Structure formats: C-alpha cells, structure tokens
From TrEMBL:
Pfam families: Fer2. CDD domains: fer2. This is Ferredoxin. PROSITE patterns: 2FE2S_FER_1, 2FE2S_FER_2. InterPro entries: 2Fe-2S_ferredoxin-like_sf (IPR036010), 2Fe-2S_ferredoxin-type (IPR001041), 2Fe2S_fd_BS (IPR006058), Beta-grasp_dom_sf (IPR012675). It comes from the Bacteria. Residues 1-94 form the 2Fe-2S ferredoxin-type domain. One of its GO terms (molecular function) is 2 iron, 2 sulfur cluster binding. Coiled coil: none annotated.
Amino acid sequence: MSLQLSQTPQPGELQLHPERTLLQTLQQAGHPWREACRNGVCGICACKLLVGTIDYKTHLPRGLNQLELDEGLILPCIAYPTSQHMQLDTPRYPK
C-alpha cells in the first residue's frame, strides 16, 4: 500500500499500514500536518482524498459537514487506508 502527496516539496511515496491512521503515517514520515483532537471532531487535519478509499472504523468524521464530505474531504486522524494506492491533496497552511 502506498500514499502519494500532491503539492508537497517532498516527492515520493509513503508505505501505508492498514492498522495506522493516515495521520500517523504522515507524521512518522516527517510531514508537517496540523492536528489537534485526533478523534475526528475538530476538522483541523482535513484534506482532500484524490485517489483511493478509507474507512473511519469506529469514529465518525464529526469535524466535517456534508458539503465537505461531498467534496471529498477526509480526516486523516481517524482515516485508515483500504486501497492499495492513495493520493492526498496536501493542505496549504498559512505562513
């Protein structure tokens, strides 16, 4: 399983593990990613899933409204990968 990030200065692929959230994988690889609650409530870590599928398992993405979900936004803090290849659009944080 692999993960590609768009709009990032660090090209390449990350190895995904079905038992780790996307946020855990990103942070372990050294990618700066905003997070706060780590349980899907605040929405700070939201990003767009371009390719692939996820499962929230036991959590609900309460940090996203229906419009955001319809636009393809996900919460990496509670999202587990369920496809072999994934691509995320990285957030553009203000400096």
